[in-house]
Design goal:
- By secondary structure, the protein is mainly alpha-helical.
- Helices cover about 85% and strands about 0% of the residues.
- The protein has one domain.
- The C terminus is likely disordered.
Length: about 300
């Protein structure tokens, strides 16, 4: 690992290309995450048989209804809380705690509804301006936009891979030149005694493995976490409570399933044991002289045949 970190120093002169590749990976992750936003409009058109204009108007009306229903409740709880300021006793403290808890829940619901209303109003502006009113044309428009988004994502993916590949090749070229300049100053007797096979392995196999590791480090280890982060951010915009629960419960479920799988694997006889039994039986048959009905052999289970 120490030598790998030392080899990464040869990539530092090409840090400008690495920065552009990270930017391309970020844009590719953004477009990759935006592709999932087409699921809701497509399902709305296919299931409800309405266009996006009617869908956004219905969503705005439902959100406004929630706001109109929640605002009187917040005002009532606020007035009730203010009335308790002049009272004393344990009942007042308990009632204040209950009202504060209810008021916090109502205010959270109201704030969420107002945020959703502002987003719906912004989406309505662009839907009314650019999206056609016919459902079939809207579906065709969404599919075309999705294809264009995928094409743009592929464009940034291509440039990210190309830039990372150029950085890897140039850094390996510099490393090989440095290695060659060091080798030509070595004593000739060292090659006579040990040969040049080890040096050629350093030039070929080790360099290739180093290039694969560097490409993985600057390529997938940058792009994949950005994609995962984009999906998490998009999921938080949709429902952050469900996203948080998913991020907490899924790792726990994976750990439990992994432990259960290992326990079951240890409890189940392995294929190696069955192969050893078959080999022992075949050796027993070959070693058994004609006319004898049984033979003894040592197996992993200490079985006598």
């Amino acid at each position: 690992m120490k030598n790998f970190v030392r080899a990464l120093r040869f990539s530092w002169p090409y840090r400008g290309r690495l920065f552009i590749s990270i930017l391309c990976a970020l844009l590719a992750a953004v477009f990759w995450s935006l592709n999932f936003t087409a699921i809701t409009p497509v399902l709305t058109i296919l299931t409800d048989q309405i266009n996006l204009q009617e869908w956004i108007d219905k969503k705005i009306a439902d959100t406004e209804k929630v706001i109109y229903e929640t605002e009187p409740l917040v005002e009532a709880r606020s007035k009730a809380y203010k009335k308790l300021e002049n009272e004393t006793g344990d009942f007042r403290d308990k009632r204040c705690r209950d009202l504060a808890h209810e008021l916090a829940k109502l205010e959270n619901r109201l704030e969420t509804a107002r945020t959703s209303l502002s987003r719906c109003q912004l989406a309505k502006k662009y839907i009314d301006q650019y999206v056609p009113t016919d459902p079939f044309q809207t579906l065709a428009w969404l599919i075309g936009a999705l294809v264009i988004s995928v094409a743009i994502k592929g464009f940034f993916d291509f440039w990210q891979d190309s830039l990372v590949g150029s950085v890897v090749n140039l850094s390996l070229f510099d490393l090989r030149n440095r290695f060659y300049r060091t080798v030509i100053h070595l004593d000739v007797d060292q090659f006579t005694e040990h040969g040049s096979s080890e040096l050629m392995a350093r030039f070929t196999n080790d360099m290739e493995m180093l290039g694969n590791g560097t490409k993985t480090l600057f390529g997938k280890m940058v792009a994949e976490p950005l994609r995962a982060l984009g999906c998490v951010i998009l999921a938080c915009f949709i429902n952050w409570q469900l996203t948080l629960m998913f991020m907490v419960l899924v790792p726990i479920a994976i750990i439990i399933l992994t432990k259960v799988g290992r326990t079951m694997k240890r409890a189940t006889p392995s294929e190696y044991s069955h192969d050893e039994m078959g080999t022992s039986c075949s050796q027993c048959v070959r070693r058994n002289p004609p006319g004898r009905s049984s033979c003894s052999t040592i197996t992993p289970f200490d079985t006598t045949w």
